[in-house]
Amino acid sequence: MNFLQQLADVFKIFLDTFGVTVLVPIVIFILSVSIGVAAKKALRAAVFMAIGLTAFNIILGILWGQLDGVMVAISANVGKTFDVVDIGWPAAAAIVYSNSLGMLYFIIGLAFNLFLYFIKVTDTFQPTDIWNNYYFVVWGIMVQFLTGSFALALSACFFMNMFMLLVADFLAPALQEYYGYQGLTNTCNCTTNISILAGAIRWLFKKLNIRELHWEPTKIQDRLGFFGEPAMIGIIMGTVMGIIAYVNALNVLATWSKILNFALTLAAMLVIYPTVSGMFVKGLIPVSQAMNARMRSGKTKRKIFNIGIDPAVYFGETATLTSGLLLIPILVLTAVILPGNRTIPMADIPAMPFMAIGAVAVFKGNILNTVLTGTIWYSAVHYMVSDTAELFTQMALKAGTTLEAGQTFINSWCVAAQPPLYVIMKCFSADGSLRYVLITVCVAAYVLALWHFKTHRKQWFMFFGASEEYVDQYLNAATTKNA
Amino acid sequence: MAHSVHICVCCGGGIFTTTVVTEEIENLLKSKKIPYVISPHKITEIPNLTEADIIVATGKTSSTNKNGAPVLIGLPMFTGIGKEEFGQLLLDTIAKVSSD
Question: What are the residues facing B39 on neighbouring strands?
Fold first, then answer.
């Protein structure tokens, strides 16, 4: 820990001198080259990453300024305070990887993942999907802000990483059975965590003998198709929110200029993000590919193993898309209604299908159950987004985003939508000696779950939605493959 | 072939898998000296992409394009399993599209 602390201190000096835009690509370049990526390829990737980061800081400042005014106006009209602007997961990723812990975890996390995989704590090979580490590292950084301790923050990251891998192991057969991608599992918290509640609801329905109702997804998708496009989501949601914000002055022409400009800004944000983030992501691709190639070339003797993959490959499936699109108006509505909530999903609205994936796999594509689970799970999330906004805003300011501070806060609705990680963060940053009691409870719960899983795999796989036949085949294929 | 083929690569967020698959396709088309235009999109845009000659989605989808551009599933380009076969399929589709 001491050595890591010193490493973090050195990082900080470099960070303060050069700024993140220079330091992040350098770290990525060194990491890429050290795991065997050709220098030219690594350099090109690193330069693109710097460009992406620069572009992000420019557009984010502008967009925030625009979204800000509407949130304030909505607050005044609804008689509640909405002072947390949702800036979206692509921006959150850039912010997290610009933090010294975020950067360090690239290297430490990679080693840690390999270690966990080789000592068989997990069956999931995660280094192919290190990009999605930010979903839990963000909570680690919050621990650091709250406690001031780098060691605690890093321990929290390790713990959340292990938790995420355990869920990825649980969910693997259900994902493979429903989506049909053999040998893959998902290592992104934004899609897997909801499967815990989905599994519990499925279990409850069975106990109570509630018959499952089925909705035909294709018809709904045909009807929603046009509105599901990011540009259209931006225009529609932007206009609706604009009208709520300026409802008292709709007879003034200038108001409509404000509303339509806001709608276009939101649409622009949703459409521009992929291009900018795509540049940023280029920096990480060589590492991910090098690990992927190494994994495939090596003759593995593992009985069961799954490769961690980005959830984007599950996104386009019909029930997933449809559930996600149905959740959009529901969750915007719960955000406005729920007392004490300070945020409304905006830039992360198009990410809703991602957040449905874990439940879709558990319910085998049952849209009604997925939407029900999503409504419960993600309505609770509004409060977590509100509660962590101050911390997230501090992080963004440190990462070099220039903001008109004071008026509103920012957060990413999708990144903060992780109830288990929220609880873990709270335990690791609790006051005084209570902290150590809570951490011990967390670790004990994890060890117990892991031990039970290793001895009762079949039960866990079925709890997470896989059918008995599939689990048998999954476990059998594993033994014959090895024979 | 005077006209370059326009390929739209789509995934959930239009970011991670799209970027990886785009790089793979670019490498392939450069090596075959096929002129191309390639752009990142989201799966939800598939029905309304008017500029596309060919659409490559990184994961399974049942979405179709209103202008009739073929939708290929490019997951092999991401995972590396069946990459050669997918490359051939893509080249065949390009040949077919540009002869129409």
Answer: B8
Domain ranges of chain A: 68-274+307-465
Which of A272, A315, A317, A360 would best serve as a mutation to test chain B binding (most B beta carbons within 10 A)? A315
Nearest to A286 by CA among A25, A91, A97, A99: A25
B71: left (phi over 0), alpha (psi -120 to 50) or beta: beta
Task: Give the span between the Cα atoms of B32 and B25, in whole angstroms.
Answer: 11
- Lowest mean pLDDT of A220-224, A419-423, A473-477, B11-15, name the range: A220-224
Q: Which residue, chain included where needed, has tokens 């096929």? A: B34
Phi then psi for A113, rounded to 5 degrees? -60, -45
* Interface probe, candidates A128, A229, A317, chain B, greatest B C-beta count within 10 A: A229
Which pLDDT score is estimated for A174?
94
**Total domains in the fold of chain B:** 1
CA distance B13 to A417: 17
A230: contact with B, CB 8 A cutoff: yes
A90 vs B15: CB contact, 8 Å cut-off?
yes
Q: Which domain range does residue B17 map to?
A: 5-99
CA distances from A101 to A32, A268, A285, A428 (A): 18, 31, 20, 16
The domain spanning residue B57 has which CATH number? 3.40.50.2300
| ∠ Cα B33 B39 B41 (to 5°) | 145
Q: Chain B contact for A90, CB < 8 A?
A: yes
Which pLDDT score is estimated for A407?
A: 65
> Could you give the C-alpha distances from A170 to A42, A174, A282, A464, in angstroms and in order?
35, 8, 30, 7
> How far is the C-alpha of A49 from the C-alpha of A46, rounded, in Å?
5
Provide the residue count of chain A.
483
Contact A228 B44 (CB under 8 A): yes
Question: What pLDDT sits at residue A403?
Answer: 67
pLDDT at position A351? 87
CB contact under 8 A, B12 and A277: no
Question: How far away is chain B from the Cα of A285, in angstroms, using its nearest Cα?
Answer: 7
Say which DSSP state B39 is in: E
When pLDDT is cut at 50, 70 and 90, the band that residue A122 belongs to is very high
Determine, for residues B60 and A316 on separate chains, whether the beta-carbon distance falls below 8 Å: yes
